[in-house]
């Protein structure tokens, strides 16, 4: 299970094979120079993220049985109120199969139904976050799309009442970018890169790219990314507002835990109310967004003792 450690996460077996059609990758949009060599099993000192060899960790009372949520290509771990979802097919840059996408949907629904789960963290096994869907499977290897080919986990992530932190550890392309854009917010490794190759391979976006990307980076850059397939690196992603932070690769897990700790200390109902206000107010007029907040304030019932306790705790930490 994922555990806190100054050493980082152990990596699953991985190598530096290039991506074929199984991840919406196209020539010129591969691993952005990431070196997967040396990502052997067991512990990593300063290399990156992975689902294998993550140590025993511990399951808090009342937490999800994450082992039941894990499926082929998707590793699920529940630690200290945080559900960690790791896309885990490193040989094909974590290209998402139908089974993996269905697993993501099931895991998100389970998190939303479990009061002890305060945060979902979504990441990938090094060297990639994900190259998108498994295109070979989605096209039925030339025999037509199989049942479930249109399974869309991004919509479920956007609708979640539980916050979702996207931890982008490497390349994040096409369907994976749509999935990342659906998270509550994103932090990224210096190794991260982002691209949309839908148009490059002759497909329209289907998980929200045309709506989400312009809202994140502006319509002009969104046009450029979607029409050319060019990637942007982590520094550019930070500059244009696609990600909230860029941290050294070996610090990515530690920073994710720091953010998780802060979220776990918050009032769970206040978090849900805040996410709902942000979602309902996005894209509306200022007047309408202010009216939504005013109505939510009138409906809220505060526990003054709890508020005072939380304020004192936060003040003492400072």
From TrEMBL:
EC primary class: lyase
Report the Gene3D superfamilies cross-referenced here: 2-enoyl-CoA Hydratase, Chain A, domain 1
Which Pfam family, any one, appears in the UniProt record? ECH_1
* Keyword annotations of the record: Lyase
Which superkingdom, per the lineage? Bacteria
Family per record: Belongs to the enoyl-CoA hydratase/isomerase family.
> What is the name of this protein?
Enoyl-CoA hydratase
Q: Which organism is it from?
A: Nocardia vinacea
